[in-house]
Specification:
Elements (H helix, E strand, L loop, with lengths): L10 H24 L4 E4 L13 E4 L11 E6 L5 H17 L4 E4 L12 E6 L12 E9 L5 E9 L1 E2 L2 E2 L2 H15 L2 E4 L19 H10 L1 H4 L16 E3 L3
The structure holds zinc ion.
Length: about 240
């Protein structure tokens, strides 16, 4: 609860406070608005997401014009050992192999690369290092939208461990695969045994047809359009994809 004025404050101070509050709130709103696609993979959760009758995957976001050339660039930043890099490469390769019209291209993460990659991936030691989420966080994707609301770029953070445990390389690959799913426009699945489920322990390691359909639907303006060269970004009409059980 925030009270602006009480008996002891002069009118000028109140006015200043109102201004300060206004500008702080505006700044906060901008920060929130610019990362509205944040999705977190967690190790455990007490509350379930709004479960419905069907097994479904939510659609989060739609790529903008950057995907029109069929290429998504990515870079792995920071000092990442070869094994973890390979896990990320394997995760990306799996998506690449499964979506015919999108190719992932690794680009340098150095400053010579003036163009920001479409997907930037970095590692942290454990969930404690996530700024906005709890220590149970295994991975997080922040999706930056352009001013029309289409995906501009994504920042993925993967934890090397969490809650006192170090993840094995297979788990890191699964987290990476899940986070790339977010980067492609997916929200979470409302059921276990799926790559996009919120809990890493119950996540599938493989990409199913349902995730592929959800990616196609999310980016239907380019992935479901035969005449893709004369289309411009548009949002899908659906917000969820129902998965066959
Ligand atoms: Zn997630």
């Amino acid at each position: 609860m925030l009270h602006l004025a009480d008996n002891g404050q002069s009118a000028v101070l109140v006015k200043e406070l109102v201004f300060i509050l206004f500008f702080s709130l505006s700044a906060l709103a901008i920060v929130i608005l610019s990362f509205i696609g944040s999705s977190t993979t967690i190790l455990a959760a007490d509350e379930e997401e709004d479960f419905e009758e069907n097994s479904l995957i939510k659609i989060c976001c739609t790529w903008g014009i950057d995907i029109a050339d069929g290429i998504l660039t990515y870079s792995i930043v920071g000092d990442v050992d070869a094994e973890k890099k390979e896990a990320v490469h394997n995760a990306i390769q799996d998506w690449d192999d499964n979506i015919e019209s999108i190719k992932f291209e690794e680009v340098s993460s150095t400053q010579e690369n003036k163009n920001r990659p479409d997907i930037q991936i970095r590692f942290v030691n454990d969930g404690e290092q996530f700024k906005d989420e709890g220590p149970e966080t295994a991975g997080n994707t922040k999706t930056r939208l352009d001013k029309s609301g289409f995906i501009d770029y994504n920042t993925i953070i993967i934890a090397e461990g969490g809650l006192g445990k170090t993840f094995n390389i297979k788990t890191i690959e699964t987290i990476a695969k899940h986070e790339i799913g977010h980067a492609l426009g997916l929200g979470h699945a409302n059921f276990g045994s799926n790559l996009m489920t919120t809990k890493i322990e119950s996540a599938a390691e493989t990409i199913s047809l349902c995730e592929l359909e959800a990616v196609r639907q999310a980016n239907s303006w380019i992935l479901m359009n035969e005449n893709e060269h004369d289309s411009s970004p548009s949002f899908p009409e659906i917000t969820t994809v129902i998965c066959e059980s």
